[in-house]
């Protein structure tokens, strides 16, 4: 027998084989997993958490930020005010343009209405003149020869003395217009109506007569047809309601703007015997 047979062993007792095998298997699996991960790609580093200390905002920076905010707010207010002013200006311009267009439309309508009224009045005057002449011719037919005779005798005495002064100027004016056109409402210089011609003749010597025949037939002193003088105004119809006027030029003749067919003519009194006369000069 060996001399060491009775000495106790200092070795650790063997572990249970199954447990040892299990642990070896687990370790091997872990190592295999790590090896596969290493082969698949680099190992992912664990995230690092770092605390960054932010700088402290100083009082000066706070003031600058506040000023910048205030300036930004002011700019915004200015832009808003400008936008409001621009909108108001655009609205006012639109309203003004609309008002101008309306005013132009009304002016044109008024002008058309006045032209239509004038045309209607001229047509009525022509119709009235025609009717009055027809009536006058019918009522004075029996006395036409007597009127012509008395006019002829008065014209003989009148023509014996030539017109002078303003009367001569009036006569020269109307004779100068003989041959001009007759146009209702015409006042020269190349077209006339009856009262326009008479008014123009007397205006040439500084005398302003009314514009229409009715008023011209009462503008001076009523004179008899047997006592005519060159420059007297002849009228047809009643005094104050005359429809035609002319100027007596002496020698039993008158000048007048008769109608659109004849224009301004010089004719004997017998051509169209007048109803009366007024003396202005």
Structure description:
The chain has helices at 17-40, 59-140, 144-159, 165-176, 194-203, 213-216; strands at residues 181-182, 191-192, 221-223, 233-236, 244-250, 253-259, 263-268, 276-279. It is α+β, with helices and mostly antiparallel strands and 281 residues long. The chain has a domain at 145-279: endopeptidase fold (from Nostoc punctiforme), CATH 3.90.1720. The strands form 2 sheets. Strands 3-8-4-5-6-7 form a 6-stranded antiparallel beta sheet. A two-stranded parallel sheet has the order 1-2. It is rod-shaped and about 115 Å long. It starts with 16 loop residues before the first helix and ends with a strand. The relative contact order is 0.09. Mean pLDDT is 77; it is low at 33-37 and 135-161.
């Amino acid at each position: 027998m060996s001399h060491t047979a009775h000495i106790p062993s200092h070795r650790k007792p063997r572990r249970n084989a199954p447990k040892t095998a299990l642990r070896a298997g687990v370790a091997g699996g872990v190592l295999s997993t790590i090896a596969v991960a290493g082969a698949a790609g680099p190992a992912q580093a664990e995230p690092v958490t770092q605390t960054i200390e932010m700088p402290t905002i100083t009082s000066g920076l706070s003031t600058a930020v506040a000023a910048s905010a205030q300036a930004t707010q002011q700019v915004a207010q200015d832009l808003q005010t400008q936008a409001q002013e621009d909108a108001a200006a655009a609205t006012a311009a639109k309203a003004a343009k609309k008002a101008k267009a309306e005013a132009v439309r009304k002016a044109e309508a008024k002008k058309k209405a006045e032209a239509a009224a004038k045309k209607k009045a001229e047509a009525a005057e022509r119709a009235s003149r025609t009717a009055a002449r027809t009536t006058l011719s019918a009522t004075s037919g029996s006395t036409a020869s007597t009127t012509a005779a008395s006019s002829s005798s008065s014209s003989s005495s009148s023509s014996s003395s030539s017109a002078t002064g303003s009367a001569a100027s009036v006569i020269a004016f109307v004779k100068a217009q003989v041959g001009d056109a007759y146009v209702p409402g015409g006042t020269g210089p190349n077209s006339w109506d009856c009262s326009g011609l008479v008014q123009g003749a007397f205006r040439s010597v500084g005398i302003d007569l009314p514009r229409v025949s009715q008023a011209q037939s009462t503008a001076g002193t009523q004179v008899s047809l047997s006592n005519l003088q060159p420059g007297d105004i002849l009228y047809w119809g009643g005094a104050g309601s005359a429809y035609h006027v002319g100027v007596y030029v002496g020698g039993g003749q008158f000048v007048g703007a008769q109608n659109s067919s004849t224009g301004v003519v010089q004719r004997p009194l017998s051509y169209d015997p007048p109803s009366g006369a007024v003396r202005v000069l």
